[in-house]
Design goal:
The longest helix has 23 residues. A hairpin with a 3-residue loop joins strand 1 and strand 2. The strands form 3 sheets. An 8-stranded mixed sheet has the order 6-10-11-16-15-14-13-12, with helices on both faces. Strands 1-2-3-5-4 form a 5-stranded mixed barrel. Helix 4 packs across helix 6. The protein is an alpha+beta fold. Helix content is about 30%, strand content about 20%. The structure holds adenosine-5'-triphosphate (ATP) and manganese (II) ion. Adenosine-5'-triphosphate (ATP) binds next to strand 11, strand 15, strand 16 and helix 14. Adenosine-5'-triphosphate binds next to strand 11, strand 15, strand 16 and helix 14. Belongs to the class-II aminoacyl-tRNA synthetase family. Pfam families: tRNA-synt_2, tRNA_anti-codon. It is an enzyme of class 6 (ligase).
Length: about 475
Amino acid sequence: MSQRIKIKALLASTETGKDVTVKGWVRTFRNNQFIALNDGSTNSNIQIVVDFENTDAALLKRITTGAAISVVGELVQSLGKGQTVEVKAKEIKILGDSDPEKYPLQPKKHSLEFLREIAHLRFRTNTFGAIFRVRNSLAFAVHQFFQERGFVYLHTPIITASDAEGAGETFHVTNFDIANPPKTDTGEIDYKQDFFGRATNLTVSGQLEGELGAMALSDIYTFGPTFRAENSNTTRHLAEFWMIEPEMAFYDIVDNMDLAEAMLKYVIKYALDNNKEDIEFLTQRLTEEEKQKPQNERSEMSLLEKLQFCLDNDFERLTYTEAIEILRESTPNKKKKFQYQVEGWGTDLQSEHERYLVEKHFKKPVILTNYPKEIKSFYMRQNDDGKTVAAMDILFPGIGEIIGGSQREERLDKLEQRMDEIGIPKDELWWYLDTRRFGACPHAGFGLGFERLVLFVTGMGNIRDVIPFPRFPKNAEF
Ligand code: ATP
Ligand code: MN
């Protein structure tokens, strides 16, 4: 008996006449004769042709949607449409039954909302098979991009005692009996008695530790889980998401932008080259979905065209100040169509503003730089104007912010002064400040939200559909 061959390889095979062993899950079984079998190696199914007259009726009954089966048969040229080869079954074994009365995933169209409720089974649909193969490719491409450039993959801690952004949106980590934590004399929770001897939380960003690595290894990147307890029930936020955070010594903000743009293009190209079939499928899916929308809300480009467009064009680079001017003069702002009016310099941009710039005004990815220091983090390098910092955000169509980064403040006095102004305790970040005391140098970095990248490349509309098991307010199922 031959060894099991995966369906992707089988469909590409020209060696008809040979016996093969193929295993997978039944998608459909038509006319007691044609099994569409899928094993997740590709979006396409292999057709298994059953000689039902010479097959036990009891066995035929067990070939149901969702069942796992093993088939030995001859690979033959297919007469049917849509496939070049098929397998003429000689022997079929049921590995795992699937009761058709109870199996939640019927061979029909299910809504994405319903599939989210059965996330343990949704991998078995064409859409989610494609999404997670693309996600896999993008993750691999991220590593390949940085490895090719000599970056060191650095593992920053998951449990930390610092809140990098100072935003306080953290998940606490404790070993206390939460109904009865030890208290100090003054009645506060006594974290000295906790596991780490201090209050700790799940990381919101690996950046500060990443910078420490860059101050010796030159170029590092992290790629790990990040946790934010922000109560944001949006299509772009998760409580647990994956972030890629490169930090580069001797980079200024322009080097930083160049690297970020090159990385995005590299990984998108990698997916286009290696996941052609999946992206074509997802393009079709999106086109179908958009047919439900009124004409003026449909995108001008298909998913495939959008991805190609992103590779072929330079991202638009402009300052926050220039962006505010454009937004202030924009038709939706004048007609009061924005939920948040753009009035003066200094306000933070809302997602609707970012998307206007990208989707309506420039019609391409945009890099915004030099934001007001008040709306950005303490570690961003202060510009000479005294008002702005060397920040850069990359905005993508349909997504808004996909990357947030900056040149970091390497001057100790400036950094300490900013921390004092905002009230960030310097003693807690003594180790971070040490890198400004010993061999400080210009450096820069950014954070890419991995799921936002996957959203863009798959054309999906909700971030909960591009991570296997999404974590969001009131949900930690699976
Ligand atoms: P936003 O304004 O969209 O909430 P942010 O300014 O909080 O983003 P950063 O702190 O700069 O984001 O994080 C870097 C990147 O991480 C963002 O550009 C985005 O791609 C991603 N990101 C941030 N928060 C989330 C989240 N809750 N879920 C998924 N991705 C996120
Ligand atoms: Mn945020």
